[in-house]
Amino acid sequence: MTFQETTDIPGLDLTDLRLNGFKVYALPASTEVPPVKAGRRDFYKMGLVNGDMTIHYGGQLLDIKGPVLIFINPRGPHSFVRRLNRTSGYSCIFTETFISGRELQYSPLFRVGDNPVIPLNTEQSDFMTGLFEKILAVYNGDYLHKGELIKSCITLIIHEAIRIQPAQHVVPVRNGIHRIVHLFIDLLERQFPIERSSEPLGLRTAQDYAGQLSIHVNYLNRAVKEVTGKPTSAHIAARIIAEAKALLQHSDWSVAEIAYALGFEYPAYFNNYFKRLTGITPNVFRKV
Asked: With DSSP H G I counted as helix, E B as strand and the rest as coil, what are the percentages for the chain, rounded to 5?
């Protein structure tokens, strides 16, 4: 499977990322930067931006004005980033193996569905700028243990960001029902992204998820409906469609391969499912 590259981003060479698990670069302060296809990858993005930008992330269109911190989870489809006016700042890209995967998966900053943008005041922006400049200087230097020092700086940025603005959309685990819903949503997100057609989606129904959580499906359905206002099946369908759209846009898999990867027995079933929920067929969506 071939995902669209991010090589159009000035100053970004993914060779270092593949070798070391991280990459830091300064954003170009230019008004002539073209739209950038970001695609989906196996790395996380964390940036400090001062300027105007538009981000398409997880189905959201976010118009932001800096200074802001931005946290992007690769499990959330993000189609592109467009610089509107003069911008400045820094971006750090790292893999799940560079920073503790568990720390990233359970961090409220990288939770799929939450707003990935944290506004900063002048004092906060100055502090974060110093940290990103330190990371860039260490990265470009010859310190023997640069990886460990950069990890410490990234961890400090993450914890400072949580302190500045805790996640606003995390479902509080106040009782048994909320805990079940929290576990369901977490289990749902951990099924994605689909990386290989030979490893199809295993959990596709409320019954499947209830079995994994060792609860009765009726209890799961009641809990999800009570807490979120939507049926369990609606959450599953929305996530499958989001994954289908991402694969149609950012992979070279055939529609049949995507259908099998998402757990459909026949491509025709997938075509009907996709059209019923989106109004168009997968082939039409891919051409749009």
From this structure: 45, 15, 40
